Amino acid sequence: MRRQEEAQLKAGLLQINQLSQQLEAENQYLQEEVSHHFENIISKSKAYAEVLHQVEQVAPTDSTVLIEGESGTGKELIAHAIHRLSQRSQRALVKVNCAVLPESLIESELFGHEKGAFTGADKRRQGRFELADGGTIFLDEIGELPLDIQAKLLRVLQEGEFERVGGNVTLTVNVRIIAATNRKLKQMVGQKKFREDLYYRLNVFPIENIPLRERTEDIPLLTQHFLKKFSLKTGKQIDKILPKDMKRLQQYRFPGNVRELENIIERAVILTPGEILDLSYWKPDNESSRERSTEIKTMEEMQQELIIRTLEKTHWRVSGPDGAAAILDMHPQTLYSRMRKLGIKRSDR
Description:
two-stranded antiparallel ribbon, Arc Repressor Mutant, subunit A, 3 domains, alpha/beta
């Protein structure tokens, strides 16, 4: 009995080591493949490759880019990649998070202010657009900008001109704008919360950054990346993850996307005492699990499956003693009615 348990343990450890080596090799290969273009972007997903292809297409131009996508998908990484591949790569990439700036200071942050423009303005200050002159400005969470600031941003996009707060001298800048949002700007336009003219000025080249649940093949690579990152940061030697835990991660839908995965791995590294990552603390909502969503079927789905299987068995004959209706113990007209309701046609075979 003891020998059998030891053999099972050895087999399990061998499986862990093989998985770890495979992930390491894939990660190294992919890093070599994309690092010269897409530093810090880790992916082997075909769907995400389309996003990166769009980045390569638009980067050499000076066109305005609007990056849309859920929170935590890595929109800032896309903005960095566009700047790095652009003709402005030797100049600054100036980042502005529009969601964290107080409304009273947004205009000053973006366009600067003159001495005495308001209480506390004891000297002239350059704004982010001046700092980005000749380079790129990244306006993150642009959907949070107040409408009055949107009007001034529109002028910069159209004319490349603005005035500092409290000033009357018109300044001219040459700046490429990359904007990002996790909100549906087109809906906001309809709700009069975002200027329509600004939306169309920003939406020259839209890029939809896909959620992690649509690139699940990247979860093992990202997990290994974060495992190495936080092991190094904490001084630990954790380099393995159990196959069952990797399966759990790949079945989870990650509403918080890559950022949520990163947080899960960071906490696990902190809690892990040994060399194998301990994910026992992590108990996600089962309703968010792909495994649950695919295993549990609605009553209509089960009925549809049973009827189609029975019809296939009878070669799609409904009536008669050997027909599907007789097997299912229902009147033929009832079965026809149920088939119409469930959208069952012979092409469903």
